[in-house]
Amino acid sequence: MSEATPAADYDDVTRDIAEVPAVEVITTVGVHLMSAAAVKLGLAEDGEAHKDLDEARKLIHALAGFLDAGGTEISSFHAAPLRDGLKSLQLAFREASIVPDEPGQGPGEKYTGAVFG
Question: How many CB atoms lie within 10 A of CB 101?
């Protein structure tokens, strides 16, 4: 490493992570999964260039499983917007699919049950 690029102080980084409440880590991870799924659904700027429904399916399914497992560990105040976002992604996936999945077979519906508009 050159002198112009100082190394990150491991103790400072560890201390920063230790100070972050679990609810913040859980919601941040949920938002990252939602954002990545939205991009893969083609919902971002220049969406068609990034659209990949196979990748979107994986991310939505992971988000649903994550919320199923971690949703009870955070308050409804924090979990409700994540669940609403998940449902919106599931509906967008159904709309984007050329051949929609059967009700209850879409991404994440193993955890949420069938999603209808």
Answer: 16
pLDDT band at 112 (very low <50, low <70, confident <90, very high): very high
Burial 103-114 (b: 16+ CB within 10 A, else e): eeebbbbebbee
| CB atoms closer than 10 angstroms to residue 17 | 9
DSSP 64-106: HHHHHHHGGGS-HHHHHHHHHHHHHHHHHHHHH-SSPPPTT-S
Selection from 1, 93, 74 nearest residue 31 by Cα: 74
- What is this structure's pTM? 0.84
**pLDDT beyond 70 at 13:** no
Write the Ramachandran bin of 114: left for phi over 0, alpha for psi from -120 to 50, otherwise beta: beta
